[in-house]
């Protein structure tokens, strides 16, 4: 049965749709074709405009003074919109870079910016390569099969982030559980519980952990990103506890789940497209292009929201002041007007103007790190890979924000 435009719009607010790529992409393709700026009224959600074309997402991101992150930076239910509004008024809300606008965004972003510049990334690269080798070795130790997501992909990038922050490896399990609970709040396998109170417990646990870390780094500063955040000052004053903890949370979570989703989704794409796997093995110089194609293909961040500060016309549609827009990155990254044969996975795609890292002032702080991690892993894996195939049915996380595969059963043969 074919979708109506209204049904396609509501699909973007359905967490289960993001675990069903065929259904999701069919809805997004319909919206791009028939109503790229579409008003959506979905049960349980405050209404919003769905923005599905590449050019329109860029236009809104470029106009960051008109379209603000606050007060609705992510698509959440109407219940959670109200909870977040109340907590923000009380000064106890999570306030990451995702939640901020200028001038706060510009000043707070600068605290961690140097840690993600090319010089810092070059310094971290030996550790990243060591970890990539460790996890390919782990695949060999596991034998000839594994659940790649659960046994490899979720571990490797989190260890990188722990190294950057300077956290002990003994805290790995705790961080892994918390990040999965935070981003998987609508997935029955990932969430801690079904009520808002149980979900808030995840944030409480994050805050408790990172407040202790802040206290320790202020008492004994060290040469790591955690110490830089703990001892940062804005206008001569240290960040308050909530802003400090929020900074840790965005580094620990966004730098983990997005990259693990890209690596696991990228591996599945190579399995599904053996000609591209052969090409990449025969032409390893294509790896930088292949990494960006994996990032486009997976688009692990599914959406961000913006709110209009004044009336604005987009494609002859008037978006009124106070109305929200949903920027659909998976849709923008399959836009037929921008990408030649967008549903073809092409390890040599060039140019590749994907928007998976956003655009403009909110461009992802960790984009270079994500590329280095993904490249290091596949540069370690592919020379040792003799064969690989699916060993069961892959499953994806049901969530409207950051999502990817939660299970990828594979069978393989490795050298060494």
UniProtKB/TrEMBL annotation:
Record keyword Metal-binding present: yes
Domain of life from the UniProt record: Bacteria
SUPFAM superfamilies attached to this UniProt entry: Cytochrome P450 (SSF48264)
Entries under Pfam families matching the protein: p450 (PF00067)
Entry keyword set: Heme, Iron, Metal-binding, Monooxygenase, Oxidoreductase
PANTHER family with a match to the protein in the record: BIOTIN BIOSYNTHESIS CYTOCHROME P450, P450, PUTATIVE (EUROFUNG)-RELATED
Family statement: Belongs to the cytochrome P450 family.
Name listed for the protein in its UniProt record: Cytochrome P450
Naturally occurring in which organism (per UniProt): Actinomadura vinacea
């Amino acid at each position: 049965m074919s979708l109506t435009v209204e049904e396609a719009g509501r699909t973007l607010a359905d967490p289960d749709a993001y675990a069903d790529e065929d259904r999701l992409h069919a809805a997004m393709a319909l919206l791009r074709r028939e109503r790229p700026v579409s008003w959506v009224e979905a049960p349980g959600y405050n209404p919003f405009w769905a923005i599905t074309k590449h050019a329109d997402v860029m236009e809104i991101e470029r106009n960051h003074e008109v379209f603000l992150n606050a007060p609705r930076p992510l698509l959440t239910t109407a219940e959670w919109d109200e909870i977040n509004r109340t907590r923000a008024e009380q000064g106890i809300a999570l306030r990451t870079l995702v939640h901020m606008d200028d001038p706060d965004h510009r000043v707070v972003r600068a605290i961690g910016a140097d840690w993600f510049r090319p010089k810092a990334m070059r310094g971290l690269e030996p550790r990243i390569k060591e970890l990539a080798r460790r996890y390919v070795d782990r695949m060999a130790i596991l034998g000839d099969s594994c659940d790649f997501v659960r046994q490899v992909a979720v571990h490797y990038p989190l260890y990188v982030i722990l190294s950057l922050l300077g956290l002990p490896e003994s805290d790995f399990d705790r961080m892994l559980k918390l990040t999965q609970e935070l981003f998987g709040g609508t997935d029955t396998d990932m969430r801690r519980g079904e009520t808002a109170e149980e979900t808030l417990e995840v944030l409480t646990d994050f805050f408790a952990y990172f407040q202790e870390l802040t206290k320790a780094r202020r008492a004994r500063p060290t040469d790591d990103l955690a110490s830089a955040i703990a001892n940062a000052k804005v206008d001569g004053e240290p960040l308050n506890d909530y802003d400090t903890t929020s900074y840790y949370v965005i580094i620990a979570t966004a730098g983990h789940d997005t990259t693990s989703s890209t690596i696991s989704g990228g591996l599945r794409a190579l399995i599904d497209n053996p000609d591209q796997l052969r090409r990449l093995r025969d032409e390893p110089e294509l790896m930088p292009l292949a990494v960006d194609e994996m990032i486009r293909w997976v688009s692990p961040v599914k959406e961000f929201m913006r709110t209009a500060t004044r009336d604005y016309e987009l494609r002859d549609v008037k978006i009124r002041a106070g109305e929200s827009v949903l920027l659909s990155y998976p849709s923008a990254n399959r836009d037929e007007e921008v990408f030649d044969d967008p549903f073809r996975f092409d390890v040599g795609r060039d140019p590749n103007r994907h928007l998976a890292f956003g655009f403009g002032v909110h461009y992802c702080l960790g984009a270079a790190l994500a590329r280095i991690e993904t490249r290091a892993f596949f540069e370690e894996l592919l020379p040792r890979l003799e064969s690989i195939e699916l060993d069961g049915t892959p499953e994806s996380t049901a969530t409207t924000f950051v999502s990817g595969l939660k299970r990828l059963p594979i069978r393989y043969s490795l050298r060494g």
